[in-house]
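Recap from last week: sequence in, structure out.
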Amino acid sequence: MPCRGLRSLLLALFLTGGHCSLIAATYAVGTCLPQYVSFSTIQSAVSSVPAGSMIKVCSGTYFEQVTITQPLTLEGVAVSNRERAVITMPPEGFLVNANLQTLGQLVAAGILVQNVSPPGPVNLSNLTVDGANANLGCDPYHGIAGVVYATGASGTLQRLTTRNQTSSGCSFGIAAENPVSSPTQVITIEHNSVHDEDGTGIFVGDTLYTTPSTTVTITGNVVAAIPTPSGPIYYSGDVWVQDVNGTVAGNLITGGSFGIYGDAAGVSLSHNRLADFLPTGLATAISLTASETAESNEISNSYMGIYGAANATITGNLIMNTAYAIVYNCFTNTVNGNTINDTQVAYYQPPSGVSAANTLTNVDTIVGGSCPAAPLKRPDFHFRRH
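Predicted structure tokens:
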């Protein structure tokens, strides 16, 4: 029997409950790879193949929301001078299918990974997830996301494009969370293009205020937020990590009102390039609310460069063209080895003067502000918590 015929027979047995089971192998969506058993939709493929399979998606536009509940690899492929595989709004419109518990936010996800069984990674690559600017509103029961990895889901997301996720500020390009202590979650988000979202480009969150069970690597991504069309402008930002362990490194981050919002003591932020944040009193390139490390980042054109929390470490950064380069907020931070050029105030509200060894040039005021009896609290970006 020809190989293709054998595959078809095995697939038929699998789908009809036959006693033979499929061996994890390679399958296709579309007609560009006739050597493989193929499916007409991505959802039918991910629901039918055995765990651990590779699914290659032909170029084209797929009007569907995809839910993945078993370990597999899903990737777009280049055939006949075409490569882009786009997942976008189905004819009936987007349906809310995911619950971001750490934020109290329901969203309609283009790709949702949840309840993965048997345990194993779900890996995505070379796909475009387009939100079609389908504004579902912004309240706890509406929102939109390109890709969501729910509780316990692990894997690698690489070379994805998420675009046009807009929902009056309740939108995400990529979101992952693990609001439980077990199972643990390991997520790698690398070399993706995230743009034209009006909420948060990349969000990774864990159980609030307990030992993190998520380890995340966010590296080599290009993330560009757009201003929220309605509501407070601080809704729009690029990378938000909350109560997790890991690294945010080597990313190019632009636009919106915050570049990296770090609310995770176990995360280091290094070698990122951040520029062009909204010129208001809330716009911040790097905002630290836990004892993170911000090291060797390049920051330009932002109202605030780095906003420090208690016991933050701020070293080796290049900060240019800001109103306030480093904001202590009256907390004790470790600040040294930074280069600050072209700013109105180099250090704002240090708790007891500044003895930091940094390089300052073209600074209007070296130290500004004074500290009250209790440290000030910056307006909280946790606008989705309920």
